[in-house]
Fold this sequence. Notes:
Organism (chain B): Nitrospirillum viridazoti CBAmc
Family (chain B): Belongs to the ABC transporter superfamily.
Distance between the termini of chain A: 52 Å
Oligomer: heterodimer
CATH architecture of the domain at 69-263 in chain A: Orthogonal Bundle
CATH superfamily of the largest domain in chain B: P-loop containing nucleotide triphosphate hydrolases
Number of strands of chain B: 20
Number of helices of chain A: 13
GO cellular component, one term (chain B): ATP-binding cassette (ABC) transporter complex, substrate-binding subunit-containing
Structural class of chain A: mainly alpha
Strand order of the largest sheet of chain B: 6-7-8-3-9-10
Largest sheet of chain B: 6 strands, mixed
Keywords (chain B): ATP-binding, Nucleotide-binding, Transport
Number of strands of chain A: 0
CATH topology of the largest domain in chain B: Rossmann fold
GO molecular function, one term (chain B): ATP hydrolysis activity
CATH superfamily of the domain at 69-263 in chain A: MetI-like
Distance between the termini of chain B: 38 Å
CATH class of the domain at 69-263 in chain A: Mainly Alpha
CATH architecture of the largest domain in chain B: 3-Layer(aba) Sandwich
CATH topology of the domain at 69-263 in chain A: MetI-like fold
Largest interface: A-B, 19 and 24 residues
Shape of chain A: flat
Largest sheet of chain A: none
Number of helices of chain B: 8
Radius of gyration of chain B: 24 Å
Amino acid sequence: MSRALALRLEPYLYAAPSLLLIAAIMLVPLVTGLSYAFHDLILLDPLSGDFVGLDHFREMLDDDGFWTALRNTVVWTAVSVALQFGFGLILALLLDRPFPGRGLVQALVFLPWAVPGFLSGLTWAWLFNPVIGPLPHWLHGLGLLATPENILSDPHLALWGPIAANVWWGIPFFAITLLAALQSIPKDIYEAAAMDGAGPLLRFRRVTLPLLAPTIAITVMLRTVWVANFAELIVVMTKGGPADATQILSSYIFTLAFQRLDFGYASAVAAVLLVLLLAYAAAVMVLRHAMTERA
Amino acid sequence: MATITLSNLSKDYGGGPVLRGIDLEIREGEFVALMGPSGCGKSTLLRLIAGLEEPSGGEIRIDGRRVNEVAPKDRDLAMVFQSYALYPHMTVRENMSFALKQRRLPQAEITRAVEGAAAKLGLTNLLERKPKALSGGQRQRVAMGRAIVRNPKAFLFDEPLSNLDARLREQMRYEIRKLHRELGATSVYVTHDQVEAMTMADRIVALNDGAIQQVGAPQELYDQPANLFVAGFLGSPPMNFVDATLAPDGALVAEGQTLARVSPPAGLAAGTTLTLGLRPERLALTDPTKGSAVRVDVVETTGTGRVVHLALGPQRLKLFTMDPRPLAPGDVVGLVVPPGAPLLFDPVSGARLS
């Protein structure tokens, strides 16, 4: 091997081990998974395994379950993230000002985050159960429910059960990150704004929000992708039911793969979810880039 | 433009008073420096005037109106912060317009005010930049600009130059002073730097341990300091303090040598121990036979002259001289204390006696 060639190869050789590792642990499973989407792969059918091209994707177009799940995914993600963010921001603002016992309250507030998702799903399922849980009775008392029944068994309302659990569980994430961002804003900027004639509301709108914007953008994006993929609560609380009314794409994939054992079709749905999330992330990145360009 | 009156003002965060018994009248159009070492309460005093802190006792009046309970935004004062506290997400123009927008002034008027101030401060070409794209000196100017566009009742400065390098600091000192002359606005300027206080202020308020030590014109504080604190804080190199005894004939004797003669102040008995305050630049050198004999310890050249460290027995003195005579460490020289140079202080209370 000539010395010139060796020199030219040198950087690639240094990088090769990491690249191989990344390929092995990220690309190989991804490509394998994606390839299932183009095969007829049913776990209990030894005759399956043929290449079927785009058949699964055509099937999807006529699959009501898929479209319901897609709609639910949007509602589930948008409502969960919006409420998690809203309450998280309020909590962060409350915790940003000093009061006696703040350290303890901060620790308590962040507790839900430490609860395993499936455990919080179980707890919330019980809370919504009128036999042992108080929530249906409270909702009835407030006039939100005609009778104190289990909303998890009402196809029109069931999705709100996991959403409530998800909001409770996800608030700390926003509270922690937004509190950290809030605490990095120098206090004298607020003082300068106060001297400049801005009251508390205006200071929040003109100083706090713009300075939090980069953190908000990145956390909302992360959470959105995360929540869209987060099937645990739904699987535990409703199993996607009643009658698939609460399936989101990720729980639908789980059901297809591990209950109907149709790995091929499940992989095809997963591929669609992957593409949708990639498109979303790319859109947010472009938006963020445009924002920081301006900033 | 406004008068700011502080009466019996105090502040206590719960761990003892930070400020106590502050009585001060800042007159209309006056430039007052609040001067003292860190922790003396000068910044707290400024923040009380601004309304960023609440007084524990006493009263603040602006133009005769009590403002203790008035929010900062309604006091119509402008403040320049040590860190500049510019809004990082806004351009220079937006930073300077911020206060005017809160007042809902017409856009044309805002533009005129901002561009006028920018021209005055040499910021015209930087109006569309963000603070992070500016140098320290430019940021400082923007902070000034943000204050002057508002045409407030008074300006409050919280050590505005301490983050600048020496050369820039000197230039900004001059510019702030010039702006003050042009605008004629009441200004309160917090600084720990005695040179800033001396060069800029109409009057200096010397603070120590949360209490006012002396208020007066810079030269007055320099020549007639009320106590050892003020005497030692002003001047560079600082005033010499020598332990001396008052002889019956009015001679001030230190380490067995008569340094000077004074007509003894009334009520001072002979034999009293005093602290003698001697400004380094008022002392002179002569032959050892003619003055008090002292030994040269160290000689520092400053360019304009020399600072000579002298040993008078175990006591140390500094002397500033433009005398070109050759001096080497170890030389014995004569020290001359001209009449009128020594200030006499009570060594216990620190108060000036003469």
